[in-house]
Prior knowledge:
The chain is an alpha+beta fold. The chain has helices at residues 8-25, 150-157; strands spanning 40-41, 44-48, 52-58, 67-72, 75-82, 101-108, 119-123, 126-132. The protein has a domain at 32-84 and 102-137: Immunoglobulin-like (Sandwich), CATH 2.60.40.790. The chain has a 4-stranded mixed β-sheet, with no helix packed on it. It has a 4-stranded antiparallel β-sheet with strand order 2-3-8-7, with no helix packed on it. Strand 2 (44-48) and strand 3 form a beta hairpin. It is flat and about 90 Å long.
Amino acid sequence: MAIERWDPFREAISLRDAMSTLFQESFIRPSSLMAQDGLTSLPLDISETEDEFVIRASLPGVKPEDVQITIQGDTLTIRGESKEDQERKGEHWHSRERRFGRFQRSVFLGAPVKSDMAQAQYEHGVLTLTLPKAEEAKPRQIKIGGKAQVGQEKQATR
Length: 158
């Protein structure tokens, strides 16, 4: 009988492979990708500076005219639809993993924006929105005034 050296990572790798196979063969779509009314949710990257919000969304294969962007108050909504490729005569699908159908995503920005100054660019399947903040939403520095009067200091300490 030969003594075999125990390798703890061998079992971990086989567990990883088993979990990967389980997820690949699953017919259940993750609920995090589904929004209300059966619409597919749209993953977004949102960044903020002092002056603006920048939102990026990956929309591969979606035509710009099939995307609708609206801003109401401080809520941004992006909706649209990606079209399904149809099978042609003599062609059979082996795998269909690309998503298609209607999608929608609404995001509360937390500050009002200048919707008339908003910019949208669509390049290589990536939608980039630049939304300037309204003046009242921009941070303001408050300077501390002069000394308080002596009578006010005594009242504050009581």
